[in-house]
């Protein structure tokens, strides 16, 4: 595996801590109603994702039942699980402080193996289910203050703060590996905005719904947009394609929504990437805009696939 374009993320914690829900929320763009009743993970589930359409991430999602945790620390499995880790995340259930002592003991064991096999891994503790407010983040940090970690953070999928926390961790590696590509994409989008008088344009990875790159010229846009899943904006195109499949079109090319004084245009670049642009009603000229989108498509895809 190329070290320049791939990242191994090892996620561990006790049973029912919320590990798999975090994975599916961030890397598959799923919301709480879709993932709140997941079955427990059996042993280690390995899944590969193209995070933000650029970074190949391999997730090792380790089930938290006692018999599984014991196996991870054996000679048979420790090398396979703890080798080559770039990011290590230990998840605790912040609504169940009674399990903190057990979690600390198992975390210390995991860190010993991690330091042996992946000494340069970045290490994080994530307190999930923070919406239940059993303890403050400061109290949780005090509980784990004697353990050497890069950061202790609290998350809640129902409150919409989990994706931002995990994305911030992964983005550190993303920017280190793909900074040049992202800046090039931003310039392409900025040029499109200038030519079309667009207020913003964003490239979105369909699989996770996350921003790949963007160019924004209006302060009203939510600054945390890069941590939101945009799936709801382009899902109607996929549904339209399904309903009207008899027309034998490969894809639905674009979708236009009218919101107050603005038009939101969602344009399909390929099966994996869409561009979302926001234009003022008075500047909206669909024919010229679609020509420009078609013209820049190959340029964008070439940059992403480089």
Notable traits:
single chain; 306 residues; alpha/beta; Rossmann fold; Beta-Lactamase; 2 domains; six-stranded mixed β-sheet; five-stranded antiparallel β-sheet; 9 helices; 39% helix; elongated
Describe the 3D structure:
This protein has 306 residues and is α/β, with parallel strands linked by helices. The chain folds into two domains: 6-160, Rossmann fold; 179-305, Dynein light chain 2a, cytoplasmic (Beta-Lactamase, 2-Layer Sandwich), CATH 3.30.450.30. Helices cover 39% and strands 25% of the residues. It is built from nine helices and eleven strands. It has helices at residues 19-27, 32-35, 66-72, 78-82, 100-117, 137-143, 162-196, 231-243, 286-305, and strands at residues 6-13, 44-51, 55-62, 87-93, 122-128, 151-154, 198-205, 211-216, 254-259, 262-268, 273-280. The strands form two sheets. Strands 2-3-1-4-5-6 form a six-stranded mixed β-sheet. Strands 8-7-11-10-9 form a five-stranded antiparallel β-sheet, with helices on both faces. Helix 5 links the parallel strand 4 and strand 5 (122-128). Helix 7 (162-196) packs across helix 9. It is elongated and about 65 Å long. The model has no long low-confidence stretch (mean pLDDT 89).
